[in-house]
Design goal:
Blueprint (H helix, E strand, L loop, with lengths): L1 H14 L13 H10 L3 H7 L4 H6 L7 H22 L5 H15 L4 E5 L7 H4 L8 E3 L3 H13 L2 H12 L12 E6 L2
Antiparallel strand pairs: 1-2, 1-3
Helix pairs in contact: 1-5, 2-3, 2-5, 3-5, 6-8, 8-9
């Protein structure tokens, strides 16, 4: 359950352009352009990345500049994430491993919101001054966050469940309440 929520949140971050794999692990620029030009939403993704139609037409005879390749990479991964999310797929392990360092770097010291499936037994003091009793905002420790991302990037569900249960024990409510979550969110 946590793994599904983590995948959804990471795909949202990728689709918004906040987290993208580095260009050195991405497909070559021609493959990316092929994908963007042949998939629904590809032209719109390039527009959002700041690549005008005239510039795109010029790439039929010229090679994109370094700055353009970075924008193409961003548009490519935004569209890939959108399509993965739409079809219910998760990023493949090489993509997970490529973005794991960026997720670790960006998330240290940041808050995470967690909504357990059944929040009625969450201790009142644990709910604190949250906007809604069903949602908790906490800051994962560096070690816990790294363990969660390492387990997610490896694709091993058992490791991810173990890392999540270890993390749930840090929350000031009975950890069993957080073994299954309805939603998680990151404040990156």
């Amino acid at each position: 359950m946590f793994g599904e929520q983590l995948n959804t949140e990471v795909l949202d971050l990728m689709a918004s352009g906040e987290v993208t794999p580095p260009a050195d692990v991405s497909p070559n620029v021609r493959t990316q352009l092929d994908y963007l030009n042949t998939r629904k939403g590809g032209r719109e993704a390039m527009d959002r990345a700041g690549i005008p139609a005239r510039t795109r037409r010029g790439w039929k005879t010229r090679t994109p500049s370094l700055a353009s390749r970075e924008r193409i990479n961003q548009a490519y991964w935004q569209l890939r994430a959108t399509n993965w999310k739409r079809t219910g797929r998760t990023p493949p392990p090489p993509v997970r491993q490529a973005i794991a360092p960026r997720l670790k770097e960006r998330a240290h010291g940041k808050r995470m919101s967690i909504t357990p499936v059944d929040w009625r037994d969450v201790r009142r003091q644990a709910q604190g001054a949250q906007k809604e009793a069903s949602e908790r905002e906490i800051r994962p420790s560096r070690c816990s966050w790294d363990d969660l991302i390492d387990a997610w990037s490896s694709g091993d569900e058992t490791d991810l469940d173990t890392a999540w249960m270890d993390f749930a024990s840090e929350i000031d409510s009975p950890p069993e309440l957080y073994y299954e979550v309805a939603h998680i969110g990151f404040f990156l």
